[in-house]
């Protein structure tokens, strides 16, 4: 998969993209990543990407012209047509389901806002508009990184043990529930012991216990998922 991001702070991606699973994904050639600077598509001396809002009010709005030009130019860089996604609190909510859908695309172009957000006309260049949650950040870069990591770990050949993807929280194979509690050695840490069933070696019983825990936990913490 190829992922392009468009941002006025492309350097923000350097650390995240070059560590851990995203680094491995690039090494395995499962992921190709490019961060583009929106200011490269401005023509004035100040390389301005924002202007004051029509109708007045606080803050600045991202201009449609550099966005449209940049998106068209970046799209043309590869024969694969990108699925173009604007990061915005007014978008649909990002989820494991959306991540799975995106993992099926050949190419994504994630567009990061700043200031008060985008001139509404820029959304004409979007295939999707995504929010990562009901809170407001200063820019779309962190949301884009959230999407990149959630999507990349679902790409075939990225995570060594693919079962670890299948059985986790929110996944269809886990009935959309939260994951069960997990433990590793030691079996007793300062009197805090591991549930006996997990030490029993009885796989059917363990499976039953996990299903029940998963359900109880979801009921208690996230009844909205049931
Ligand atoms: N005025 C806007 C918020 C702008 S925040 C509003 O009230 O909806 C500036 C930029 O940060 C946005 O354009 C978007 O790209 C990004 N952003 C902030 N919070 C976000 C979130 N929860 N999900 C996705 N993007 C977000």
Gist?
The chain is an alpha/beta fold and 226 residues long.
Order of helices and strands: EHHEEEHEHEEHHEEH
What kind of sheet is the major sheet?
Answer: 5 strands, parallel
Small ligands present: S-adenosyl-L-homocysteine
Indicate the overall shape.
elongated
Strand content: 15-25%
- DSSP helix count? 7
Alpha-beta classification: alpha/beta
Strand order within the widest beta sheet: 2-1-6-5-7
Low-confidence stretches: none
Q: Care to count the β-strands? A: 9
Query: What is the average of the pLDDT values?
Result: 96
Structure description:
The protein is elongated, with a radius of gyration of 22 Å. The chain has helices spanning about 15, 20-25, 65-75, 95-100, 140-150, 165, 205-220; strands spanning about 1-5, 30-35, 50, 60, 85-95, 105-110, 130, 190, 190-195. It is about 30% helix and about 20% strand. With about 230 residues, it is of the alpha/beta class. The strands form 3 sheets. It has a 5-stranded parallel beta sheet, with helices on both faces. A two-stranded antiparallel sheet has the order 3-4. The longest helix is centred in the C-terminal third of the chain and has 19 residues, at about 205-220. Bound molecules: S-adenosyl-L-homocysteine. S-adenosyl-L-homocysteine binds near residues 87, 114 and 135.
Keywords:
226 residues, alpha/beta, 5-stranded parallel beta sheet, two-stranded antiparallel sheet, elongated, binds S-adenosyl-L-homocysteine
């Amino acid at each position: 998969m190829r992922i392009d991001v468009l941002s006025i702070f492309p350097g923000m991606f350097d650390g995240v993209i070059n560590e851990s699973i995203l680094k491995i994904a690039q090494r395995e050639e499962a992921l190709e990543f490019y961060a583009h600077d929106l200011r490269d598509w401005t023509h004035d001396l100040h390389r301005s990407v924002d202007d004051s809002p029509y109708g007045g009010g606080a803050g600045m709005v991202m201009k449609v012209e550099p966005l449209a030009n940049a998106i068209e130019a970046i799209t043309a860089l590869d024969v694969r047509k990108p699925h173009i996604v604007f990061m915005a609190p007014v978008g649909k909510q990002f989820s494991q389901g959306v991540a799975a859908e995106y993992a099926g695309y050949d190419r994504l172009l994630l567009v990061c806002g700043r200031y008060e957000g985008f001139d509404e006309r820029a959304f004409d260049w979007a295939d999707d508009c995504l929010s990562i949650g009901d809170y407001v950040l200063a820019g779309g870069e962190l949301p884009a990184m959230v999407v990149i990591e959630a999507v990349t770990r679902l790409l075939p050949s990225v995570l060594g043990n693919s079962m670890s993807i299948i059985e986790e929280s929110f996944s269809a194979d886990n009935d959309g529930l939260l994951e069960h509690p997990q433990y590793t050695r030691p079996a007793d840490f300062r009197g805090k012991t591991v549930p006996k069933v997990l030490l029993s070696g009885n796989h059917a019983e363990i499976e039953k216990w996990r299903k029940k825990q998963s359900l109880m936990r979801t009921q208690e913490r996230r009844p909205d998922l049931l």
